[in-house]
Amino acid sequence: MHIDIISAVPDLMVSPFSHSIIKRAVESNLVEINLINLRDYATNKQKQIDDYAFGGGAGMVLLIEPIAACIDALKKKRVYDEIIYMSPDGDMLDQKMCNQMSLYKNILILCGHYKGIDERVREHLITKEVSIGNYVLSGGELAAAVMCDAVIRLIPGVLNDETSALYDSYQDNLIAPPVYSRPATFNGWEVPPVLLSGHTAKIEQWRHEQSVERTKNRRPELYHKQP
């Protein structure tokens, strides 16, 4: 998978992509992440990428010209499955969306900043808008990092145990079951005996029942989506 990310402040994403699972995925050539500084496509000597909004009001707006120039240049290099704008009013990121996106070959992500981006970018250049929650961040960079992490870990070969992702929360609209490790007894707190039984079928049944119960109690809106 190849991911291009356009940002006014690309350094914000260096750390999330330089550690743990994503770092290993990059080093294994399973994914390529290219951080692009929008200022490299500014059209004046001052490298200006924002300006005041027409009609007045607080906050600066990312200009259409550098964004369009950047997207046009990138589209000459490859065909994108999606050109995504991280937006608080986009489609809510969920596991189903991540599963679908993990099958893509090329993704282009545009991170908003300041007050937002010129609306004409959204109308004519963006193919999909994604939100990670009903709240506002200072920019789309951290949201883009979250989305990339959620998608990249689903790519075959990224996780040491590929079946691990199948038991993540929200797969099949269920929250993941509780997990335990050694020691089996700590401060008198015991691990459920079934997990120590070695009986695979009983363990899987217990995990499923725990997932259903947790979903029912903690995320009833997901529980009611069950067939």
Explain this structure to me?
This protein has 227 residues and is an alpha/beta fold. It folds into 2 domains: 2-152, 3-Layer(aba) Sandwich (Alpha/beta knot); 169-223, Trp Operon Repressor, Chain A (Orthogonal Bundle). It is built from 7 helices and 10 strands. It has helices at 20-27, 64-75, 95-101, 119-124, 141-152, 200-218, 220-223; strands spanning 2-7, 32-37, 50-52, 60-62, 82-92, 106-111, 116-117, 128-131, 185-186, 189-190. A 5-stranded parallel β-sheet has the order 2-1-6-5-8, sandwiched between helices. It has a 3-stranded mixed β-sheet with strand order 3-4-7. Strands 9-10 form a two-stranded antiparallel ribbon. Helix 1 links the parallel strand 1 and strand 2 (32-37). The longest helix has 19 residues, at 200-218.
Q: What proportion of the residues is helical, as a percent range? A: 25-40%
What Rg do the Cα atoms give?
21 Å
Q: In total, how many beta strands?
A: 10
Secondary-structure element order, as H and E? Answer: EHEEEHEHEEHEHEEHH
Secondary structure category: alpha/beta
**Strand ordering within the main sheet:** 2-1-6-5-8
Average of pLDDT: 92
CATH class of the largest domain: Alpha Beta
Shape: elongated
> What is the name of the CATH topology of the largest domain?
Alpha/beta knot
What's the main sheet like?
Answer: 5 strands, parallel
Strand percentage lies at: 15-25%
CA distance, first residue to last residue? 33 Å
**CATH superfamily descriptor of the largest domain:** SPOUT methyltransferase, trefoil knot domain
What is the subunit arrangement here?
Answer: single chain
Give the low-pLDDT segments. Answer: none
Going by CATH, the architecture of the largest domain would be 3-Layer(aba) Sandwich
The tally of domains stands at 2
What is the count of helical runs? 7
